Amino acid sequence: MRKKGIFLIIFSLAATCGLFILAKTNPAIIIQKPVLSISQISSLLGMIFFCYAFFLSGRFSFLENIFGSLDKVYKLHQITGRLSFILIISHFIFLIFNYLGNSVMLKLLLLPGQNLSYNLGILGLWSMCLVLSSILYSSLEYQWFMRIQRSFIIPFTFGVWHMLVIPSDISRYMPLAIFLLLHVAVAYVSWIYRVILYPFFGPRFEYKVESFQVFPNDVIVLSLTTEGKKMPFLPGQFAYVKFESLGIKKEFHPFSIASSPLDDKLRLAIRAFGDFTTQVKTIKIGEKATLMGPYGKFSERFFDRKDSVCIAGGIGITPFLGMINYFKDSKLKEVKNVHLFYSVRNETDNVFRQELEEISVNVQQNLSLNIIHTEKDGRLDAGFIQNALGELKEKLYFLCGPKIMMEDIASQLKKLRIPARNIIYEDFSFQ
Ligand SMILES: Cc1cc2nc3c(=O)[nH]c(=O)nc-3n(C[C@H](O)[C@H](O)[C@H](O)COP(=O)(O)OP(=O)(O)OC[C@H]3O[C@@H](n4cnc5c(N)ncnc54)[C@H](O)[C@@H]3O)c2cc1C
């Protein structure tokens, strides 16, 4: 996670707390009425987190520069979403506590009635619970999960409306109102961009399938070309891809680009294991592929002069195919060494063997290639890497493969005193 992004969130939270105190004509009231004050500050901070949750799901390219790669952005989106829910629920619970014994206020808080501002609060809270529980407690298909996630805009709108009409610090103190409304505006712009504008005005590139090959281990390698504008990308980045093909669902799925930006054609390598990826096997030559992207910061530090150790498991080889092909054709090979450790079950799974061997012959001195067939050689671990390389410090470690493999190797590397900042992951399982 980038520090810039964390500071931005901390700034919003701290400024909200500061403005909350300034909004009080007598700040001592915060101490005198602690339960009410906790309830009020919870609602303000809950709304700030809610706004950030929308902002972080906006899929703006600049988000990766502020918060780090898209998987980190989405993780932070989930955290801010959860925190906003906890704080908004706390707002409600502390209000009830504050008015225990006051039946008129309790009725206003709990039951819809004549008072619009309270009704909006009740609607906001319950619609938020409804959307959240339908995400948490039903096993939704990914596309439905996304659609329902987008409907969080409904509780958000009730919440904003409630915040604007209820007599409170916000209605009394203009700077606090302006500060909150700025966040609200960013949240709405993000939602409108992601849901309405992104499909038309997002970074979109049209390609065609020039050739493809299906390997016995269910890996489909596609070569794409375009007559239009080529997608500019860095080695190891990924794009959201949709195919215009009768047998394939019209959905965007993320895939790493398995070719170098210096290559003429753009290559994808897809392992068929779920609904969509299995359908890709029915693709035909000449059919259209729409790419949205590029995204990802995986290879950002690959351009450092430090030697790089690339650790791939199974289909996790794809970003490295782009990075290593780029390494072969660029001046980067003159300033650093790259060591690739590629773990696959057996020879059949190793569909890129010939290509990797050719590259390592080509870049003999600066690229070492280590292929591990787990059925024969056992699991790849940090000990294996240490035996092959000797000194492990002062190197960068790039990991892409099954989550369990990445976690195991990363924790072994940390035990060998490799700093966490030098271990970089590409997580294929983020949503
Ligand atoms: C950054 C990144 C790069 C990737 N690169 C590659 C690659 O080079 N080669 C490769 O074979 N796989 C890659 N994947 C994984 C690939 O995207 C998933 O395997 C694929 O989307 C699963 O879809 P499915 O319907 O076949 O499988 P399912 O079994 O239906 O889905 C499996 C899981 O994939 C996720 N998923 C489903 N639909 C989507 C969607 N539209 N968008 C995002 N996630 C979804 C959900 O978490 C779901 O639980 C990558 C993933 C990421 C995040």
Automatic annotation (TrEMBL):
**Main location class:** membrane
Q: Does the keyword NADP apply?
A: no
Q: Where are the transmembrane segments?
A: 37-58, 79-100, 120-140, 152-170, 176-201, 309-327
Q: Which cofactor does it need?
A: FAD
Give the record's keywords alphabetically: 2Fe-2S, FAD, Flavoprotein, Iron, Iron-sulfur, Membrane, Metal-binding, Oxidoreductase, Transmembrane, Transmembrane helix
Where found? Answer: Membrane
Cross-referenced InterPro entries: FAD-bd_8, FAD-bd_FR_type, Fe3_Rdtase_TM_dom, FNR_nucleotide-bd, MRET, OxRdtase_FAD/NAD-bd, Riboflavin_synthase-like_b-brl
For molecular function, the Gene Ontology terms on record are:
2 iron, 2 sulfur cluster binding; flavin adenine dinucleotide binding; metal ion binding; oxidoreductase activity
Matching PANTHER family, A to Z? Answer: 1,2-PHENYLACETYL-COA EPOXIDASE, SUBUNIT E, NADH OXIDOREDUCTASE HCR
Protein name per its UniProtKB record: Membrane flavodoxin oxidoreductase
Lineage of the organism: Bacteria, Candidatus Daviesiibacteriota
